[in-house]
């Protein structure tokens, strides 16, 4: 019987993944997904969606590897299934290239993607400004398809959806036994977390169907990601910048830097420009605390602050959040229900 009422706040890739994981794995939970914005209006919807991550400074590498591995395997299974076109998940091969040989030549996830290797001198010849490169196959998850697909999966598992803006986590209402907070940058207000800051990212969609491989500069500011309908080119990483409108200087910079890497982009038609605010934090927050709700102390599981890697880590951190929910059910709820 579904006797534990759970509210998941936030319907970006982190919130919807977490809502699905709770609804599918904890049969005692009736899950309500509450958010101001749903697909296609979340930050997640505009992300390039490449599975790739930089290292967070204070999270054990074993934990980061677990998050990455779980997400990669979950999305790889979708990419290799009949659901791939509807879910917008594809395999994507290409290169990350560096102007100087990096100190650490292998990212922590090198053996979790497919066929990771150092590029040969022959391969690097087409990038004359770059001295070192990595070739590998990863995944691309396009949230404008993936989120509606996941939301259907959530409803099929019995989940309910409510669209509303909260001004505090207490606003979910007194009827819930447990709250999971996946509100991304919104946690600055909802969890009073002053560590949260926007990291502005601007990207363009261009028409260049001849491009099949991704190219990413190791500085994280220039990338070309071929997708299902168009190619995402970017980008910017502007910490503390709340502007959501296009910056023409950024657009010109993106076009110039990407054309330098891939000269054929001079022939590509620019289709659109998009700006999003990454939910920046020193480390993602996966943690439990308590909330006073309708006269009761209710556990809150936080799952936010994924910065530039939320699509990559969503499934892995959702599974981590489910463990925290399960722990709360064991420790605190059974006696009261
Ligand atoms: C240009 C760009 C490119 C990117 N490319 C990649 C990439 O290639 N790979 C990758 O892994 N990541 C990428 N990212 C990062 C990725 O977009 C984020 O990490 C991810 O979207 C975070 O997801 P989220 O669910 O935490 O937040 P969001 O998608 O922002 O969702 C937050 C949710 O919380 C809700 N919410 C917030 N406040 C409230 C409130 N007060 N009341 C009710 N609801 C509220 C919102 O309405 C929304 O539903 C990129 C980001 C940008 C900007
Ligand atoms: O850095 C990348 O390659 C894409 C990305 O995740 C971002 O822009 O946040």
UniProtKB/TrEMBL annotation:
EC number: 1.4.3.1
Family: Belongs to the DAMOX/DASOX family.
Known cofactor(s): FAD
Amino acids binding FAD: 43-44, 307-312
InterPro entries according to UniProt: D-amino_acid_oxidase_CS, DAO, FAD-dep_OxRdtase
Source species taxonomy: Eukaryota, Metazoa, Chordata, Craniata, Vertebrata
First-tier enzyme category under EC: oxidoreductase
Any Gene Ontology biological process: D-amino acid catabolic process
SUPFAM superfamilies: FAD-linked reductases, C-terminal domain, Nucleotide-binding domain
Reactions catalysed, as given in the entry: D-glutamate + O2 + H2O = 2-oxoglutarate + H2O2 + NH4(+); D-aspartate + O2 + H2O = oxaloacetate + H2O2 + NH4(+)
Binding positions (D-dopa): 223, 278, 308
Entry's Gene Ontology cellular component terms: peroxisomal matrix
Keyword field: FAD, Flavoprotein, Oxidoreductase, Peroxisome
Source organism of the structure: Oryzias melastigma (Marine medaka)
General function of this protein: Selectively catalyzes the oxidative deamination of acidic amino acids. Suppresses the level of D-aspartate in the brain, an amino acid that can act as an agonist for glutamate receptors. Protects the organism from the toxicity of D-amino acids. May also function in the intestine.
Sequence ranges assigned to domain FAD dependent oxidoreductase in this UniProt record: 5-324
Name this protein carries in UniProt: D-aspartate oxidase
Any Pfam family hit: DAO
GO molecular function, one term: D-aspartate oxidase activity
Cellular compartment(s): Peroxisome matrix
């Amino acid at each position: 019987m579904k006797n534990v009422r759970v509210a998941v706040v936030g319907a970006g890739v982190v919130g919807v993944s977490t809502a699905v994981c709770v609804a599918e794995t904890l049969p005692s939970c009736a899950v309500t997904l509450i958010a101001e914005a749903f697909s296609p209006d979340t930050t997640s919807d505009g992300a390039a969606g490449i599975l790739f991550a930089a290292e967070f400074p204070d999270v054990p590498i074993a934990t980061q590897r677990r998050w990455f591995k779980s997400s990669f395997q979950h999305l790889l299974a979708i990419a290799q299934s009949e659901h791939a076109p509807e879910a917008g998940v594809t395999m994507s091969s290409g290169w990350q290239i560096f102007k100087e040989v990096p100190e650490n030549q292998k990212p922590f996830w090198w053996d979790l993607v497919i066929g990771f290797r150092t590029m040969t001198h022959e391969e690097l010849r087409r990038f004359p400004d770059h001295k070192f490169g990595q070739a590998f196959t990863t995944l691309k998850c396009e949230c404008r398809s993936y989120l509606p697909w996941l939301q259907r999966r959530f409803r099929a598992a019995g989940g309910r959806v409510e669209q509303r803006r909260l001004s505090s986590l207490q606003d979910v209402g007194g009827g819930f036994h447990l709250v999971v907070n996946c509100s991304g940058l919104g946690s600055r207000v909802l969890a009073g977390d002053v560590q949260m800051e926007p990291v502005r990212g601007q990207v363009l969609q261009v028409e260049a169907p001849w491009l099949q491989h991704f190219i990413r500069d190791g500085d994280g500011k220039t990338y070309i990601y071929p997708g299902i309908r168009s190619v995402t080119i970017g980008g910017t990483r502007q910490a503390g910048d709340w502007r959501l409108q296009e910056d023409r200087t950024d657009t010109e910079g993106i076009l110039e830097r990407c054309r330098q890497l891939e000269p054929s982009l001079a022939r590509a038609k620019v289709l659109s420009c998009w700006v999003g605010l990454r939910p920046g934090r020193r480390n993602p927050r996966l943690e439990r605390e308590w909330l006073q709700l309708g006269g009761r102390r209710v556990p809150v599981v936080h799952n936010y602050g994924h910065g530039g890697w939320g699509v990559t880590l969503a499934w892995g951190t959702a599974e981590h959040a489910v463990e925290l929910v399960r722990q709360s059910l064991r420790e605190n709820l059974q006696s009261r229900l």
